[in-house]
Design goal:
Length: about 70
């Protein structure tokens, strides 16, 4: 039970850091219903340097949306 409490506290601390850091960014991803700071941080981390995509279409293809 102590391990569960420890991990829950760790998760809360990490989420607080993510929320704080993401609040500093102009983040249009969070305008999508259901996407909050944690999910948008994951998306941004997965994409990496967005300038590597020449167009929105190429980014959408990379994301598996087309």
């Amino acid at each position: 039970m102590n391990n569960i409490r420890f991990f829950e506290q760790s998760i809360r601390k990490i989420e607080n850091v993510i929320n704080r850091d993401m609040a500093k960014l102009a983040n249009p991803l969070e305008s999508v219903r259901g996407i909050g700071p944690v999910y948008s941080a994951g998306i941004i981390a997965e994409i990496g340097d967005i300038t590597k995509f020449d167009s929105q279409a190429k980014l959408a293809k990379y994301a598996g949306l087309t």
